[in-house]
Amino acid sequence: xxxxxxxxxxxxxxxxxxxxxxxxxxxxxxxxxxxxxxxxxxxxxxxxxxxxxxxxxxxxxxxxxxxxxxxxxxxxxxxxxxxxxxxxxxxxxxxxxxxxxxxxxxxxxxxxxxxxxxxxxxxxxxxxxxxxxxxxxxxxxxxxxxxxxxxxxxxxxxxxxxxxxxxxxxxxxxxxxxxxxxxxxxxxxxxxxxxxxxxxxxxxxxxxxxxxxxxxxxxxxxxxxxxxxxxxxxxxxxxxx
Length: 241
What we know:
Layout: E1 2-10, E2 13-21, E3 28-33, H1 41-52, E4 55-60, H2 80-84, H3 88-104, E5 112-117, H4 119-130, E6 135-139, E7 166-171, H5 179-192, E8 197-202, H6 219-236
Parallel strand pairs: 3-4, 3-5, 5-6, 6-7, 7-8
Antiparallel strand pairs: 1-2, 2-4
């Protein structure tokens, strides 16, 4: 596989994009939406995992406005200024720029999926409610129900306008996303979404259960969630030309 980082033009500057091209003919394209810790070693590794199974995979650096790339998992205070600089408008512009880059590589909207982790889980929902991509998956995305800030409000109003099939993966032991919120989200999607949606809960999993660089990693949940993610992509992305 071929890896590189390039700069994309976005409305308020340039955004680094980590890109991995698979060996052989790609089967589709996947956008990997970062955790709150940036496009770090783990997110780059996940991007390469998608490429290893044949996807043209990219990870946009959503913290480009503050000029910071990634952070360790041991001090969340360093992340807060980066998060404070984000808005849904800016994030969506970044995703659109990434999609347009993939258009330039020959992919149509329905051949592109987005998979997000932590903060990126919410990004996947934001994308699903605004764009008509092939598929979206969110791992433990907080702030979907109640929002995070005034500039990142609840995303529930997007349910009835969703044009991208969305799969949500959550852990019951996630202190930042109560089970009650997850079940409310399930109910809202079942009642109002016009596209295929699903919500899966893992009884003993904490926030970050998929990240093997974090103490909260849980192999069983991570393995099952990854398998479901690949099945969701396989079942919803339009085939490569």
